[in-house]
Amino acid sequence: PTHNLRFEAGIKQDFVEKIDAPILYSLSGKWKAAEWYSVDVNFSKNFRFPSFNDLYWTPGGNKELRPETSVQTDMNHEFKAGDFRLILSPYYIRITDMIRWLDTGSGYWSPFNTHKVESYGLESQLRYQKNFNENHSIKFTAGYSYTKSVNLETQKQLTYVPLHKFSSNLDYQYRFLRFYAQGMFNGLTYTTTDESRKYAIYPYFVMNTGLSATLMKKYTLGFRVNNITDTIYETMDYYPLPKRNYSINATINF
């Protein structure tokens, strides 16, 4: 309707052999309320047919899987102040027959339908970027997410979905030299459907840092230290990840 107000709508029908695919739709709108604030809202119905691996992976493929459907809505608030930008995105998703790969207890994983799932939460990101002159630049990003994904039949949090997650990245560049540091915090993560803390993955923090040099705009040499705090952690149950480790890389662009 105006330069600062926009609406969009869409409708789609998929045709899949032997599958009754629903009519899909989407609605969205964006409003730039001020130079420092804008908001957009999205609403859609979605459909996901099982992938080839979902059906036929050996071992574990499940030919009896039903397609996944969902209705979701989200709202993005964007604030600007100088070189800072803050984005807050609450969301809500209602999923029917969600396709999830789960441990069968027989040494392999297999996909199953979870009949009713409700997922909601908040995703946020803070950005700062500044060029001081032709030689110096700095970039900082930090993100936090809160995710509540519940099996409505059991009222339990889904496995391997942490409630809290935080990540950050600092990047400083001086002419051809670049220094960066990364950090990630992962909150308590359940690995069983009964929310057992005995078998849960407990919170952990991992940090990486590195240095690189770009020569003649074509050659980049880098050195990186991963997990500098020497944290003992795992993202999948019974699969611990490396402690402090180092890597060297060389890149040629042509």
- Number of helical segments with 4 or more residues: 1
Number of strands: 15
- Largest sheet data: 13 strands, antiparallel
Helical percent range? Answer: under 10%
User: Topology as H/E string?
Assistant: EEEHEEEEEEEEEEEE
Overall pLDDT confidence: 95
Helix/strand/pairing class, anyone? mainly beta
Rg over C-alpha atoms, rounded to the nearest angstrom? 23 Å
Strand content: over 45%
Shape: globular
Low-confidence stretches: none
First-last Cα distance? 46 Å
Assembly form of the protein: single chain
Short description:
With 254 residues, the chain is mainly β. The chain has one helix and 15 strands; from the N terminus they run βββαββββββββββββ. The protein has one helix at 52-56; strands at 5-13, 23-34, 37-48, 68-81, 84-103, 109-131, 136-151, 156-157, 164-174, 177-186, 204-215, 219-226, 234-236, 239-240, 245-252.
Which helices and strands appear, and what pairs or packs with what?
Blueprint: E1 5-13, E2 23-34, E3 37-48, H1 52-56, E4 68-81, E5 84-103, E6 109-131, E7 136-151, E8 156-157, E9 164-174, E10 177-186, E11 204-215, E12 219-226, E13 234-236, E14 239-240, E15 245-252
Antiparallel strand pairs: 1-2, 2-3, 3-4, 4-5, 5-6, 6-7, 7-8, 7-9, 9-10, 10-11, 11-12, 12-15, 13-14
